[in-house]
Structure formats: C-alpha cells, structure tokens
Design a protein that fits this description.
single chain, 108 residues, mainly alpha, two-stranded antiparallel sheet, binds zinc ion
Length: 108
C-alpha cells in the first residue's frame, strides 16, 4: 500500500472535500517550497505556496506546479496574491511577479 492509499484509508472523504489538503497537493506544494524558497515578488522568506487559480474554482489544478507561486507570508501573499483580501484572487499574479523581476534585475 502506497502512502496515498494509507492516507486515504485513514482519512476517508478528506481528499474529495478538500483537494488543497490532499496528499498529492501537499507533496507538490512541499516540492515547490523547496525549489522556490523565496518570494517571487520581493525575494523574502519564509514563503507561502499560493495557488494562482484558487482551489475552490479549479480543484483539478490543486497539485499542478504550474499553478503555484511562492509569495512571502509577511506581506506579498495577501497584497500581491489576493489584492489585500483573502476572498479575492489576482489572476495575473505570475505576470506581476515577472514584471518586478524585469524591473529589478538585482533581485533575481
Ligand atoms: Zn494565496
Ligand atoms: Zn514578498
């Protein structure tokens, strides 16, 4: 029995109700956290792994690394990822962070 099967056996219904906490999602997010340890906007750490397309809208992208972006927990996650309100989601957050990198080549 693999890890995911064990997890599901112990937490029946958990994955279906909350794809954000599914084993595959957590694993993919941890991997992203290790490969992108700094905020994509300001370069600070520690970071949160932000979902570009919100999980409640696009649960099929919950574990997709293309849908992750690292934003620091102190400021950028809420301001850049969510426009100051956790109920909002900034759709072009990737473009915003890319623009910042172009404008501040020293922070690469
Ligand atoms: Zn977020
Ligand atoms: Zn930041």
């Amino acid at each position: 029995m693999n890890n995911q099967m064990t997890f599901l056996a112990r937490n029946a219904g958990f994955t279906v109700k909350n794809p954000r906490k599914a084993w595959a999602t957590r694993k993919a997010m941890n991997k992203h956290r290790k490969s992108h340890p700094n905020c994509e906007y300001c370069g600070r750490s520690p970071i949160h792994v932000h979902h570009i397309a919100p999980v409640r809208v696009a649960p099929e992208l919950a574990a997709d690394p293309e849908n992750f972006i690292s934003l620091c927990g102190k400021r950028c996650h809420i301001t850049i990822g969510h426009a100051g309100n956790w109920r909002h989601h900034v759709g072009n957050v990737g473009l915003i962070c890319d623009a910042v990198k172009i404008n501040r080549p020293w922070s690469r």
